[in-house]
Amino acid sequence: MSVSNDDAPVFMRPGHNAGDLVEAGRWQILIEETGLVEVEAHLPRHLLNPRNQLFGGFTGTYVDMISLYACRTLYQKSSDFTWSATVNMRIDYLAPVVGPRFRLRGEVISNGRSTCLVGSTFTDLQGNKLVYAITTLRKNA
Questions:
Q1: Which end of the chain has a smaller Cβ tally under 10 Å, C or N?
Q2: pLDDT tens per residue across span 34-45
Q3: Are strands 36-42 and 115-123 parallel, antiparallel or unpaired?
Q4: Is 45 helix (H, G, I), strand (E, B) or coil?
Q5: Residues 85, 32 contacting (CB under 8 angstroms)
Q6: Euclidean distance between the first and the last CA atom of the chain, given in angstroms as a whole number
Q7: What is the pTM of this model?
Q8: Helix, strand or coil, per DSSP, at residue 106
């Protein structure tokens, strides 16, 4: 599903600790297809380092959220996706993430029986790559 930014549905409802930290309830879904999700996110002030950039320690939270969501798109019904655990994550920092908005793209690279490998890319609104991550998730099978 591709939607315009003006009337895009939000990423998730409040009530998830990690999601609330990054204010994922305010993210807008731009693309949601099987094995692919792209959102436009904002950079909350409480996640900034002294240079007004995303503090690197919080990058993994964003990666985890978009990876879980990308893996969840593999299921016909969201109720079939009951849990997932991150078993490995590698993050490459290419350039600072600065606000106020940026994009996150999660794409399933490999969908195995019990694991899912997801590539995540952070870009600025001009399409410049800022962060690339690979995440391995153990999923319900």
A1: C
A2: 999 999 999 999
A3: unpaired
A4: helix
A5: no
A6: 25
A7: 0.87
A8: strand
In the numeric block, which tokens belong to residue 24? 């994922």
Q: Provide the 3-class DSSP secondary structure of residue 27.
A: coil
Per-residue pLDDT reduced to its tens digit, 1-59: 444 444 544 566 666 778 889 998 899 999 999 999 999 999 999 999 999 999 999 99
Nearest of 138, 122, 114 to residue 58 by alpha carbon: 122
Q: Would you state the structure tokens that stand for residue 97, as one six-digit string?
A: 């993430």
Query: What is d(CA 120, CA 131) in angstroms, rounded to the nearest whole number?
Result: 8
Q: Give Cα separations from 18 to 13, 47, 101, 125 (angstroms).
A: 12, 12, 19, 24
Q: Which stretches of 4-64 are assigned E, i.e. beta strand?
A: 28-33, 36-42
Determine the Cα–Cα distance for residues 17 and 103; give it in Å rounded to an integer: 21
Instruction: Report the alpha-carbon distance of residue 91 to residue 55 in Å, rounded.
Output: 13
Strand boundaries in the chain, DSSP class E:
28-33, 36-42, 84-93, 101-111, 115-123, 129-139
Is pLDDT of 141 > 60? no
CA 85 and chain centroid, separation? 15
Q: How far apart are CA 7 and CA 26, in angstroms?
A: 12
